[in-house]
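Quick note —
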Amino acid sequence: VRTVADPSTSGCNLGGVTTRVGVFGAAGRMGQEVCRAVLAADDLELVAAVDPPAAGSSLRDFGVESALVIGDSADALGTANADVAVDFTHLDAARINMAWMAENGVHAVIGTSGFTDADIAGIEASFVNSNCVIAANFTIGAVLMMRFAELAAPFFDTAEIIEYHHETKVDAPSGTALMTVQRMADASDEWIDDPTTSEAYPGARGGVGPAGIRVHSVRMRGAVANQEVILGTSGQTLTIRHDSIDRSSYMPGVLLAVRGVTERPGLTMGLDDLLGL
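Predicted structure written out below.
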């Protein structure tokens, strides 16, 4: 975080302090939204954008009102002296980007999903000179949904999760669904057995998650990101559902993490601590 002498400088606030932000995957749909959100924030300054396939283009070419030229590697963040970098890319790229951030002392806010337990252990060990926040979902409503499902789990006998995402999402279940089912299983292991003995279509009952909780993944054109948790016990059901109607729904959580990552040493998983949950 830098102190800025001239409050008229782009990205500065009246308090004279600004955080310099870089964005990996800046030309992608989520990356574009992050760039817009950072540009609109008085206390943040967008100083670098990285996306190798779009390198050399301006952010304006992707509908973002900035003349910033997109770089082809993480070196663009080093040149711009970024404090924090946001990554919404894909798993292989995110691993490389995070290794660079850890080595170069840049704080990381990661929205990419699919990390293994080994990845997480390595990330935790590597972020000693800067901090890292990884969230399965940056939508604050989705974070609350997961917490509500965790609280409800001990009071019900059955539970299933249905998650809906756009037709270009390549991994299933989503990171949000994986996190939800794990938290519910940690909260209760007393679930009744699935009565199904045969399936006309293999997989019709969904995937089996921790504690036997079933997870169903829908990939649907027109969807953005939606999830419902259905819990049941004698004579009643409870449905907890969250819908992201537009990618802008992620931005309050992303900005929360960008502003909070400097105060969270090491690795922070999820937004719960940042929200005080």
